[in-house]
Design brief:
The chain has eight helices and seven strands. A seven-stranded parallel sheet has the order 3-2-1-4-5-6-7, sandwiched between helices. β1, α1 and β2 form a beta-alpha-beta unit. α1 packs across α6, α2 packs parallel to α3 and α3 packs parallel to α4.
């Protein structure tokens, strides 16, 4: 896929992975719509990047953002909310927010933008599924459920769109050096010790993501221990049990 002069919408673009992907797309010549809750607070970018009001917790905001965006060639569903902790200690409202932001919002936005892609016979939908969409570790059961749902949505939609010219890519994102990863380490305390886990720079991951978009890949896998965790998830549950115990603090 040629990203030059394409229009790309990236949600959760105010920091971390979303910001890095937005910047990399702009470097490749794309026009980028950075979906953020507070457009006035978006930090400057290099290239053609402008803010677009987007609140993944609000159906009306999602619909307004899609209408204001106009024709979109690449949709990157990156907005996400962390859940890290014991289920019985979580606020129910937060659990609903996790499912809404991590799963339902991406499905909703894809549904709104897909008809235009189909009409043009070209486009790409990218879903940030995370390694948690495959490796279900203690302390993140609802977060993992939302990401596993995103994997299923991505794969089902990809097969549904075969032959239309619209591609679906899901990202098995590893540990990235972001503020959210700091929250992961803190939130998992008591279940897993992740403080020594190696992290990938968001800029490095963004380069791989954009390259995967250009080459029209169906999945972007991590490397190292996270790739092993994904492979283990495809085998007997005992394998992933053993991997998770290597981080166990109890």
């Amino acid at each position: 896929m040629d990203l030059t002069t394409s229009t790309c919408l990236v949600t959760g673009a105010n920091r971390g992975i979303g910001r890095a992907i937005s910047q990399e797309l702009a470097h490749r010549g794309a026009r980028v719509l950075a979906g953020v809750r507070e457009p006035g607070g978006l930090l400057p970018f290099d290239g053609d990047v402008r803010a677009l009001a987007f609140d993944a917790t609000s159906r009306s905001s999602i619909e307004q953002a899609a209408a204001q965006a106009g024709p979109v060639d690449v949709l990157v569903n990156n907005a996400g909310v962390l859940q890290a902790g014991q289920l019985e200690l979580e606020e129910v409202d937060h659990l609903y927010e996790v499912v809404q932001v991590n799963l339902a919002a991406g499905i909703h936005l894809a549904r709104l933008l897909l008809p235009g892609m189909l009409e043009r016979g070209a486009g790409t939908i990218v879903n940030n599924a995370s390694i948690s969409g495959y490796a279900f570790f203690p302390g993140s059961s609802v977060y993992a459920a939302s990401k596993a749902g995103l994997v299923a949505f991505s794969e089902g939609l990809r097969r549904e769109l075969r032959g239309t010219g619209v591609n679906v890519l899901h990202l098995v994102t590893p540990a990235i050096d972001t503020r959210m990863m700091d929250q992961v380490v803190e939130g998992y305390e008591g279940n897993q010790d992740l403080s020594s886990m190696s992290r990938t720079a968001p800029e490095d991951w963004a380069k791989k993501v954009v390259k995967a978009i250009e080459s029209e890949k169906a999945v972007l896998n991590p490397r190292g221990s996270e790739r092993l965790a994904k492979l283990a998830s495809r085998g007997p549950a005992l394998l992933l049990d053993l991997v998770s115990r290597s981080f166990d603090r109890r």
